[in-house]
Specification:
The protein is mainly β. It has no helices and eleven strands. Helices cover about 0% and strands about 55% of the residues.
Length: about 120
């Protein structure tokens, strides 16, 4: 079992920045994928950024060049640095984890079994 707890959400104006954190606890794995997803009201959940245990990263086109995903193994914490935020970035942001996983061919995965409770990000124009 893996437990995930997000933090760092808030309200910012367009052009601002936020850094989300996701603290992981429980079982550890040598091979894994970690991810950030988001869901806006009335919309389906979408993948934002993902990283695997080889530090291979994949980003949604809508956030490339603005968001950076990183993982601090010593702290068991996943981060999402979000710069130049836009109103369309508004939503609930969730972190997710999947053991024994690799990212391939710049494809965002959807098969994550462990999820956090989410943290709200609101960007005003």
């Amino acid at each position: 079992q893996v437990q995930l707890v997000e933090s760092g959400g808030g309200s910012v104006q367009a052009g601002g920045s936020l850094r989300l954190s996701c603290a992981a606890s429980g079982n550890t794995y040598s091979t894994y994928c970690l991810a950030w997803f988001r869901q806006a009201p009335g919309k389906e959940r979408e993948g934002v950024a993902q990283i695997d245990s080889n530090n291979y990263t994949v980003y949604a086109d809508s956030v490339k060049g603005r968001f950076t995903i990183s993982n601090d193994n010593a702290k068991n914490t996943l981060y999402l640095q979000m710069n130049n935020l836009k109103p369309e970035d508004t939503g609930m942001y969730y972190c997710a984890a999947e053991p024994w996983c690799r990212l391939l061919l710049s494809v965002l995965r959807n098969d994550f079994n462990y999820w956090g409770q989410g943290t709200q990000v609101t960007v005003s124009s």
